[in-house]
Amino acid sequence: MASWYDKTVFYHIYPLGMLGAPFVNTEDAAADRFLELNQWVAHMEATGCTALYIGPLFESSSHGYDTRDYRLADRRLGTNEGFRHFTRLCHEAGIRVVVDGVFNHTGREFFAFRDIQKNREGSRYCGWYKGVNFGWNSPYNDGFGYEAWQGHFELPCLNLQNPEVKQYLFDVIRFWISEFDIDGIRLDCANVIVDLMTGSLVVEKIFAIPGVGSLLVTAIQSNDYNVVIGLSFIYSAMYIGIMLVVDLLYGIIDPRIRLAKGDD
């Protein structure tokens, strides 16, 4: 049985840039830039594209990868309802929708990081981030240090070994699927979150909703690809660097679990 993405042609949109959103998110109210995005559906359909990779598009402080809130569309773009309507228009045009899953790190304005700033050692979220250490100071003068993605301290790294963090992210994924009816997820920094992807128990928790699965798309900058997905499962390169469409149907994680949504 063929998976829907075997012959899919992807269109890529970085919405904050394409729609001219302000680089720094200081908005009080949600904009209506999804209305402009809606107009691109007909263009994508006319070009013959059958899937869209879009993102990042959830609430962030600046470029989109410094997440503030995983459950809100970035207010510089619009509202959850606006994105839900856009996804519906795409589906009506026969276009699948794949979104960015930025799970390796958050922004400094994410609720858990702010709680550490406020409550320091007394914060229940100290274990949510890697390398939290009150014996040294960050470049932002927080009074504590932490591990940041490639040394960019505006992107504190989540501790993906923490069961609470895993459960939180699994709930986020389920929310995206049920709220927006997305068809897939691009895993940002997949080379460093491989532990989150592997293991049948992990996958069962992500896709616990009956009848719901998701295409996973990984962005890998370095690493042995066999460690992450297996060379026999690489389908196409389609993004800056290497972006891989990953088939996790049989044999990689658990042969009992079928993850592709809407297979033919």
Key terms for this structure?
two-stranded antiparallel ribbon, 264 residues, disordered C terminus, alpha/beta
Mean pLDDT: 77
Radius of gyration: 19 Å
Helix content: 25-40%
Biggest sheet: strands, sense, closure? 7 strands, mixed
Counting DSSP E segments of at least 2 residues, the number of strands comes to 11
Total helical segments? 9
Question: What is the CA–CA distance across the termini?
Answer: 7 Å
Beta-strand share of residues: 15-25%
Task: Give the low-confidence spans.
Answer: 197-215, 220-264
Q: Could you say which overall geometry the principal axes of the C-alpha atoms support?
A: elongated
Q: What's the helix-strand series?
A: EHHHEEEHEHEEHEHHEHEE
Secondary-structure content class: alpha/beta
What would you say this structure looks like, in words?
The longest helix has 18 residues, at 163-180. This protein has 9 helices and 11 strands. It starts with 9 loop residues before the first strand and ends in an 18-residue tail after the last strand. Strand 3 (58-60) and strand 4 (67-73) form a beta hairpin. 27% of the residues lie in helices and 18% in strands. The protein has helices at residues 15-18, 34-38, 40-47, 80-92, 111-119, 163-180, 194-197, 200-206, 225-228, and strands at residues 10-13, 51-54, 58-60, 67-73, 96-101, 148-149, 152-156, 184-187, 215-219, 234-237, 243-246. With 264 residues, the protein is α/β, with parallel strands linked by helices. A 7-stranded mixed beta sheet has the order 1-2-5-8-9-11-10, with helices on one face. A two-stranded antiparallel sheet has the order 3-4.
